[in-house]
Amino acid sequence: MTYTYKYPRPAVTADCVVITREAAPKVLLIQRGNEPFKGCWAFPGGFMDMDETTEQCAIRELEEETGLKVSELQQIGAYSKVDRDPRGRTVTIAYLIRIDAPVAVVGQDDAAKAEWFPMKALPPLAFDHEEIMRDAIKIIDKV
What is the phi/psi pair of residue 66, to 5°? Predict the structure, then answer.
């Protein structure tokens, strides 16, 4: 059955904030291989397919872009500022993933690189990922 909507619909993405449980935590970032923000650092993530949940999207995108496989994640929040993505109206659901220590990762798919950064020394982040990082830290601080 085909539906026709008179209202435009935004795209949905999922982003992964992967943070280690070390005394000096590290954060997994990818260097974007494509525009927008080509060459800038961001959280692994991407567009949700029509046949998956945002959780499934997050897990898939993390593996596609870094090789890291996970099964447990915690929602940080939804981010929907009108101008958060220059490609068009995009809403992202961000997820927190905690692992004990950094593991080997490699930039794949549309990620030019994947690297671990000290949480206290992150490079400037693309999109609204600095806001997402602040919210992830609030969750960690409550634990």
Answer: -130, -15
Evaluate whether 109 touches 128 at the Cβ level (below 8 Å): no
Quote the distance between the C-alpha of residue 104 and its chain's center.
18
- Number of Cβ atoms within 10 Å of the Cβ of 1: 2
What CA–CA distance (Å, rounded) separates 43 from 37? 12
pTM score: 0.94
User: Which sequence spans correspond to the domains of the chain?
Assistant: 11-142
Domain 11-142 has CATH 3.90.79.10: yes
CA distances from 141 to 14, 96, 101, 119 (A): 23, 13, 18, 13
Q: Determine phi and psi for 27, rounding to 5 degrees.
A: -120, 135
Look up tokens 């794949």; give the residue.
108
Phi, psi values for residue 112, rounded to 5°: -70, -35
Tokens representing 89 are 């109206």
Tokens of 53: 């949940």
Residues 3-36 have pLDDT tens digits of 778 888 899 999 999 999 999 999 999 999 999 9
Alpha-helical runs (H) found in the chain: 54-66, 129-142
